[in-house]
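Bug #77: duplicate submission created two jobs. Keeping one. Sequence:
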Amino acid sequence: MVDDTPESLIPYDEIVQEALREVVGRVLREVESTGVLPGGHHFYITFRTRLAGVSIPRHLMERFPEEMTIVIQHRFWDLKVEDEFFSVGLSFGGIPSTLVVPFAAVTDFVDPAVDFSLKFLASGAPLEHETHDLPQNDIPVTPQVDDGSNVVAVDFTRKK
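Kept job's structure:
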């Protein structure tokens, strides 16, 4: 069978990838503005450690030379979201660390609480989602009582 579809002069794939990365930024901005994750939401964010703009401590770079997954759930601080990147404080083996991650480096964003995930195309990246071990950076703390004033509604509609 011959594929007669002409090559597009419009970079649709790039446009869609950029728009989906903006979804990640918008969700993180909501968390940044309230300082808490609503309900049971939490995020697994996988990113390429060697891409330009990524800043992580040397011991993490040695441990994760290509790709790293972080969890934003119980213990995180100083979440800052800019147009091109986000930064967050996390603890690894009891050592507090600040990570700076450009959205262009993100390859996977998962919110297991609502079975939502985004996979971003990157050269050499597998097309299936990464399976996750228990997070080493996320130690549960006593849950805070939520009076509902910090709830942020994020409605993702997806086709099944």
